[in-house]
Amino acid sequence: MKICFVLNNIKTETCGTSVIILRKAHQRGHQVYVMGVDDFIYHKNNGIYLSCKEIPENIEDNSLKNFWKNVQDEKLKSKVIFSGDLDILFLRNNPTEEPLHRYWAGHCGMAFARMIQKTGVLVLNDAVGLSKAYIDKLYFEEFPAEIKPESLITRKKEEILDFWKRNKQEIILKPLEGSGGKDVYKIGKDKKNLNQILENILRKGYIIAQEYLPEAKNGDIRVIVMNGKILKQDNQLAIIRRISKDKAEFRSNLTLGGIPKKAELTPEIEHIVSLVGPKLIRDGLFFVGLDIVKDKLIEINVLSPGGIDHYQKTGMTDFTDAVVKALERKIVYKAKNRSKIENNVLATME
Fold this sequence. Notes:
about 350 residues, 19 strands, D-amino Acid Aminotransferase, Chain A, domain 1
């Protein structure tokens, strides 16, 4: 299997979920390439090429850190390959993590991927589905009301104040396009620093306001969903609780120092996945992260969802065998059906 992983930037990528999965694909004997989102090359009459690094068979792999350090090393030169020679293009770049001067990166990456998808290369997540879910907090609003907290999306201060009053004077404010818990604020009865907070978020675009869920003080649950179902390996489910180590901090994001803990499948989680899964399958969204507080879905992550790197810290498996084996099966299905399966269908076939 020839697979290329698209990252924001090879030099700045940390040893997270993307690196763990691509390393496992390499360990399983696949031809693995890695590129930045700015490494697409389009030729009018010859199609799309990729400037990427091919990971050598004999790369030092005694630890994840050393493995990735050797991939990042400038001694490993990039080469240009034809996109049509790939089996899979795996989009793992996250537009919300790009600096402002690279505002173009996410849109361009998705547009090139959509063109490559038309040539028969399997693109994950499906590029058309991703374009529908590009603003994932807006895509989130397409799911059933019963599993979502009350919310408002606006750029009007007066609307936010009315929403605050209707929700017991306790709400969460965050940018519509953001991730990792950045610029997320809890507004209480004193409305402390509200004007300053609004000005800060408004510089980034629309604001999403959500009702504050008191259960969030106990952390939230991250669930990784693959092919519309909870990711499973070795009879373990990819479910962890994220708890803030600071009692004064309501955010529990692992990127902000949250602590991962083992979590069990509850009827509420099962119900949420049962309602979310069919739409993810229909939209070709192969690998997705769900953030849950008790019986409410508070966020959905379709743009490079992470967390796998923290599962092992709880004594669980890293789930990468299950992910790469799923990729292998898709290529077998594709070969047996002579490429007649639509990308969005193949993307979520088990």
